[in-house]
Amino acid sequence: MKSIAAGPANAESAAESAEQSSGREAPNGKSPVNSSPDSPASIVAALQARFDAVAIGAGATNGAAAAGPDPAFLEELAARSRELESATPQEIIAWAVGRYFPRLTMATAFGPEGCCILHMLAAIEPRMHVFNLETGYQFAETLEVREQFERRYGLQIELHQPSTTVAEYEATHGGPLYRTNPDQCCADRKLSVLRSSLVGMEAWMSGIRRDQSSHRAAAPIIGWDKKFGLVKISPLANWTKQDVWKLITDHDIPYNPLHDQGYTSIGCWPCTRSVTFGEDERAGRWSGFAKTECGLHTSD
Ligand code: SF4
User: Is the peptide bond before 102 cis (omega within 30 degrees of 0)?
Assistant: First the structure.
């Protein structure tokens, strides 16, 4: 498959193009992409022409969760996923934008993978809906990364919060639930918020990589997320940790400075520690518990 912005230089120039675009009113007030022949919008259009016009997900929002998709739909997703196995992340994102925008969203905790996707999105479709699950327990450094992305790329990254403050939540449960029942805490402060955020969407994008853990090893590029009832797109599924950090360093992409202090995977501060040499990159999450995932990217 031909690359549209496979090289970092292309991604960077496209990002600059998106940064410079102005003048047209976007539905959400964000900067629109420009429409010159070499603009990200034109690149997306050219990409779309290369894929056939099967309307994956047409009319299927996460309201379809109860009924579930039919087998033909699932097979179509699988076929498209196979086609995109050899595509670059930028091509996959462009395909997803062309197919699902504006009913396409992404949750990010500003991990290195999310930062790479945000950098690419700034070039391809900076108006895409992006949000952060603000549990109230995030590191200050994490929230600062969000501001850096907004300043540098003009992205608007919404903060989606639970209905209770941390103080209210802990008062209700007689103290911090993350110490005794982190599954419940994640369910209340992440998953329930995510479910609300996905209402009306057809697809969501994730930054998971297959080599991050055994849970993620079989993640398709495009698949049906039965847990949330919508299409899930993982443009970095085939990337390695080295690929991610190369893009970040090549383009000086903002990232969480805690990574420089041995935090390889960063979530809420009570459930995150730095790792030592030789440990799994997600070993610092929920250390001391069997839990390895918050539930956003598991099927059960
Ligand atoms: Fe609670 Fe920890 Fe889950 Fe954050 S990661 S929601 S603090 S259990």
Answer: yes
Which DSSP string corresponds to 130-156?
A: EEEE--S-B-HHHHHHHHHHHHHH---
Pairing of strands 203-205, 157-160: unpaired
Query: 8-66, pLDDT tens digit by residue?
Result: 333 333 333 333 333 323 333 334 334 444 455 554 555 555 444 334 444 455 554 45
CA of 155 to the centre of ligand 1 (A): 26
137/266 Cα distance (integer angstroms): 11
Predicted TM-score of the model (pTM): 0.78
Instruction: Tell me the per-residue pLDDT of 151-208, one tens digit each, with 9 for 90 and over.
Output: 999 999 999 999 999 999 999 999 999 999 999 999 999 999 999 999 999 999 999 9
Task: For domain 8-271, say whether CATH 3.40.50.620 is its number.
Answer: yes
Tell me how far the alpha carbon of residue 159 lies from the centroid of ligand 1, in angstroms: 16
What are the structure tokens assigned to 105, written together?
């969203």
Distance, CA of 195 to CA of 192 (rounded, Å): 5
Please indicate whether residue 294 is annotated as part of the active site: yes
Please report, for the chain, the start and end positions of each structural domain, with discontinuous segments joined by +.
Answer: 8-271
